[in-house]
Amino acid sequence: MISSVLPTYNRAPLAFVKGAGSWLETADGTRYLDLGAGIAVNALGHAAPVLVEALTEQAHKVWHVSNLYQIPEQQKLADALVEKTFADTVFFTNSGTEACELAVKMARKYWYEKGAPERVEIITFRGAFHGRSSAAIAAAGSEKMVKGFGPVLPGFVHLDWLDLEAVKAAVSEKTCAIMLEPVQGEGGIRPAPDAFLKALKQISEETGTLLIFDEVQCGMGRTGRLFAHEWSGVTPDIMMVAKGIGGGFPLGAVLATEAAAAGMTAGTHGSTYGGNPLGCAVGAKVMEIVAEPGFLAAVNAKGGFLRQRLEGLVAAHPEIFEEVRGVGLMLGLKCKVAPGELVAAGYAEHLLTVAAADNVLRILPALTITEEEMAEAVSRLDAAATALAKPAA
Q1: Has 124 been labeled as part of a binding site?
Q2: 79 labelled as ligand-binding?
Q3: pLDDT tens digits, residue range 164-180?
C-alpha cells in the first residue's frame, strides 16, 4: 500500500522534533550535529532567535495579501538585494525551482522583445541541478532527471562542465543565454574557476548572450561572499536565489538587471505566494545579518578551519577519501566509497551529512557553526570513516 506521503524520497529513519543552531533533536532527546542545514537552507541555524522574532512579529500583523497590492516587507527585501548586488530589480518566488522557471522565461522574452524570437536556446552544463520542474529538468538534461516524463522541453544545449571551447562552438544565432551554478552543488561541489566565469562573461558581452547564474545553493554567504560569483568579479544578467535567503522559511528570488528584465511587464509572470509578508520579513532579517562584512569574514575563517580539519581527515583515511573540494562552508569530500554509506555511518555517530553526485559527501553546515562544533563534527566523521574501513566480521 502506498504511503500517505508520496514516496519520492528514500527517507532516513529519523524524525526531529526541535533544533537549535547546529543541532537537531529527536523525540527521545537524542541530539544530532547537523552538517547539512536542510541542504544549505538554514543559514543561521535551526530556530535562530532573530528569525523566530522576525517571523512572530510579522505573524501578528499580516500573513498574506497577494501581489495585487503593495507589500512593504517585499519592498524592503528587494531594496536590500538591489543595494548589495548587481541587480536593478527582483521578483520573489517560493523556491529555487520557481526561480529557474522565471529565469528561463525572462531570457527568452528578452530576445523576443528585441526582435529575435529565434534566440531561445540556453546553454547549460552536465552535472547541473536547477530544480525539478519541466524547464529545470530539461536544463539539467540527465537521464535520471527526465526519464519517464514525456516530451522534454526543447531549447537547451548541454555541454561538459568547464568545456570552454564547447561553449564557444555552441553559441549561435539561436542562443539566448548561458546558465550555470558558480559552484555545482548536487553535481558534487564543483566550483567554476574564476578564469572560466570571466571567459563566459566575455562571450556574453561579445555575442549579446545573457549570463544566468544559479546561486540557489552557493549563494547567501555560503562561500564567504554574499554570492559566489563575487569571487571572480564577474556579474550575471540574471540570478536565481533561494535556500539560504529564507533561513528555513520557503523563499526564492530572481534578480536581474533592468535591461535583462525589460520584457517582463505586467501580466507576463506571477505568483500567489511569492514575496508574501512572512517570507520577506524573515528574508530581510537574514539579508541584514548575512550581508555584513564581519559575518562574511567569519564564514571565510570558519571555512578555512573546517577545510584544514577535513584535509587531515582525508590524509588519515586514504582508503575512504580522495580530496576536499569547495569554497567557504560549501565543502565536499570526494569519496572512494559510496557517499550514502558515509551518510549512514554518520547516523550511528549522531552526525548529519548530505550525499551528492560524483561520489561526494557534502558538508553544508549552518553559517553560524562554531569552531568547537566543527571540530566535533570532524571527530564524528573520523569515527564514521573508521567504522567503514573495518573489514566485515
Answers
A1: no
A2: no
A3: 999 999 999 999 999 99
